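anyone seen this seq b4? input:
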Amino acid sequence: MIYITGDTHGDDLKFKENNMPGESAWTSEDTLIICGDFGFIYYDDAFPKGKEHFDNLLDMLERKKYNIVFVDGNHENFDLLYDTDKYPLVEKYGNTVRKIRNNIFHLQRGLIYTIEGKTFFSFGGAYSIDKAKRVALNPERSKDNPVHWWPQELPSEEEYARGVESLKNVDYKVDYIITHTASNVALEMLKYTLPPKERESLILDPHDMQLRSYFDMIWHNTTFKRWYFGHWHYDKHLTDKARALLFDVETIN
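predicted toks r here
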């Protein structure tokens, strides 16, 4: 069985039975997909909660019987995540993944994976609207003044091109799409599910426009069953084609 949920932000409590009903019975035949902001690869020794703390959390997740895969969000430590000595690139699910632990894998941007017989187009990343605060408080990296923001949160031109090439190779047909942020189309739908005051707080920052417009192109040109995304911290069924996730756990049979 495949389960899909939203941002976990390094919170081990989200991986408990009361937050993920049935989780304690999941087996090695099951897979949990996280729509970005995994957050367990965020800090290092320069932070109050250092590398050892988060390595211990990853060790705890490794003891889970099921597999955990995730796309990156905008709240990841990309310097650590992209360290191939610590987290090597390996072949799994029919393509290249980053191995975090024996049962934890990072899905790369712009690649297509086959998980339990179903195809998933994966594309992480998003712009941090809190970037200014994170950079201003920590302008230079040091033991006493670590960095909280990484420019790799937004995709490179190479990653955009790789995504297009991947979809072309399958005639723009996949079963599911997993991203962190969403297309403008989906976000407009999300906006109008919200009450007026919340609607005003849904800030579509122009720095994110290239990524959202790229997702618009995919939305209009790709045949897919459903698109799952996190980032916006809502649990909403938008249409039968789009699902915003945070705490909810969606099941794919």
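The longest strand covers residues 95-101. Residues 34 and 70 are 5 Å apart (CA to CA). kinda curious what u guys think
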